[in-house]
Amino acid sequence: MNEKTHRSAKIMRFWFGMALTAVTCVIAFAVAEAVLRLVPIPGITYHSFYYDELTGQRLYPGSTVIYRNDRNDHIRRRVNSLGYLGREHEIAKAPGAIRICFFGDSFTEARQVPLEETFSSIIEHELNARHPRAPIECIAIGMMGYSTLQAYLEYTRWADSLSVDHAVYVFCENDMGDNIPELKRCDAIPFPRLSGNVLSMDFSFRERKRHKTRFPHRTWQYLKSHSLVFSTLESRLKLLYHRGIKLRVTREEIEMAERAPNDEPPEVNALPSTWPDSLRTHAMTVAEMILAKWHHEVTSDGRRFTIIYIPRSSEFGKPLETQDSWAPWLFRFCKRSGIELVDPTPSMIERKNRGEEIYYDHLARAGHEALAASFLKQY
Fold it and tell me: Domain map of the chain by residue range?
């Protein structure tokens, strides 16, 4: 074999080896992806978050969200083209149709139950059964972790393009803390800012997160939202980066983990009584200004505005003014401001007394049914 032939054979072997390696990697990736999709492993899910310059994040359209809990409930939900967990909706409203849009956080998103069991789906089904000649669409525009401000911003995004007739804000107890940067501890979302009696919005996160609008990040985000392998790889790499490899934990680290510093701000879902007075007053003032602005904009456009309150189960049965919750403040504010309020607490208590499960993680099926029934009663 001459030198030229030998060199050609060597090159061919190299490229054959590269091709074989590539094929092996593709097969291994496909097998791993299939296993992760077929075997319900706790903690394995798609990373479907998509950077959004208005609210900080949405869900990647067309991706899948997997919910699992410690009692082996397994829910798979599809993200619609708008970027939320709900059925598909055309942007243009059908002639004569009425659109009710629900804005809020994970209670509105409701990934813990199948789509047909969510309160928005139940309400839509019942209203169309009552009024078959006037089609009614219920659109859930919710995202886990959303604050009052983010819910309001979603309304501004969709009010005109979706021709919203009725805007409904689903108020959850942790929304008050989600409005406060010191409590939320997140630098990737907008926050309300209060200067005297003037409310403004801080969108400084856009500059910090500008790289998320670029092609490399968008590409990686797409891959994660459609592949469990890529999502799991990112999770493990982040865990390794933040915690490193530890063969043992020191006594000092254990004591630090067990210590509860008194000077730490409360958690976003902490009972209002545990909040410092100044912070509690600030949170109520900020929320009132956002809601008053929202209510004014909706009604000025000839639309209807409603707030649904998600109660704390620990306060069931207690008189309103004695509850350690945000309900006393919210109910007084709505009455004073002329805002329609739906309180599903009586319906939830009734079902709970019948032995039905209202909450598990978030709202269980009976909780969604109770909320829907309370809304329909007032609608």
Answer: 1-39, 45-242+265-378
- Per residue of the chain (379 residues), give pLDDT as tens: 567 676 777 777 777 777 778 778 778 767 766 766 776 666 677 788 889 999 999 999 999 998 988 888 889 999 999 999 999 999 999 999 999 999 999 999 999 999 999 999 999 999 999 888 889 999 999 999 999 999 999 999 999 999 999 999 999 999 999 999 999 999 999 999 998 889 999 999 999 999 999 998 888 888 888 887 777 777 777 666 556 555 454 444 434 334 444 456 778 888 999 999 999 999 999 999 999 999 999 999 999 999 999 999 999 999 999 999 999 999 999 999 999 999 999 999 999 999 999 999 999 999 999 999 999 998 8
- Could you tell me the pTM of the whole model? 0.87
Amino acid at position 59, single letter: L
Kindly report the CATH number that applies to the domain delimited by 45-242+265-378: 3.40.50.1110
